[in-house]
Design goal:
Distance between the termini: 48 Å
Radius of gyration: 20 Å
CATH class of the largest domain: Alpha Beta
Largest sheet: 8 strands, mixed
Number of strands: 13
CATH architecture of the largest domain: 3-Layer(aba) Sandwich
Order of helices and strands: HEHEHEHEEEHEHEEEHEHEEHHH
Shape: globular
Helix content: 25-40%
Structural class: alpha/beta
CATH topology of the largest domain: D-Maltodextrin-Binding Protein, domain 2
Amino acid sequence: MLNRKLMRLLLTVVVAVLTLGSTVQTRAADAIPVLLCPFGCGPMAGDTILMNQMIKSGSDIILLPQESPGYMYNIREMGRNKNKWKNFIFKTEDVLIQIAYAGGSKEVKEFLPEEIKIPWKLLYGEAFWGQGKFLVTYDCSLKRASDLKGKRISLGLRGQSDWGVFSRLWLEIIHGITPENTDIRHMTPGQLTQQLIDGATDASVTPIGTEPSLTKFLIPGPVRQLEATGKKMCYLGATKEDIDKLNERMGATWQHVNLPANTLPHQDEPLGIGVNKGFAAVHGSFDEERAYKVVKSVIEIGPAMVELHALWRIWSTELMTCGLSEENTHPGAIRAYKEKGIWDLRNKCDPMTYPD
């Protein structure tokens, strides 16, 4: 398997060659960096393919995926680095924007020491993410997350929202499980998955994605790695009461979902989880014309992307607009949606709201 440095080098070469090929035919495209997540996460691969499709289509604007420690890191970096406000897109989530307003509070100061009270502007939705609001184990004697107190748990990085931060909030607020009474380990998705496979931990976070209709589901690579061992997988879910309590404590809008039986490998009965909406977002000062072109390009290339990458199989214009509103969406993005005649699709979903 290629190591991380080599993969980064290859990505750089691909960008350079494709960009050079594009400039032979037309002027250089406007390249916009996008803060994403750790190497190996689904959006990194998906946005790299999106970048290539933009180049191949002759688009005068392309997105450049940038590895980061995660969505929690992204919102901190954007909040404290005003130099990025006019030039960067970043991946984030509705719940993350909301709890960032509570930065420095008892619950989140380990991950977010400072308040970030910025009404970020959304461009488009990319998925409903469920990781961090349920866990997986090979020890089926464990029946609920509270049984993990005193055990070994592998979670995502502290810079990752769903994988690392939301899982900790759920475990602590709902089940009283903390680093003081339990062996909680923060690591990358690949590492934490391997630890569970090796028996070094008793349970781990694992991913799942879905979309507004809750009929199409993403079963990402880490889940398939766990399944490939041939061992029985069991799941420790969240109840609606759990999610309601989290929302009340954090002033957030996690959504409770019951996964139908057999959505995940070895899932013999319905499983309750929490989900939150993932978005591409910018600061309000981001150029309107650039925002318009980005959203217009994603709308146009989206149907082709469905065939090119697993993460995009849940894509739709309904997903792009779910959670958007006149208040929370960048004016350039709104212009693109209205031009394409799909802005009214947003009315099928409740909009993301900012804390008071």
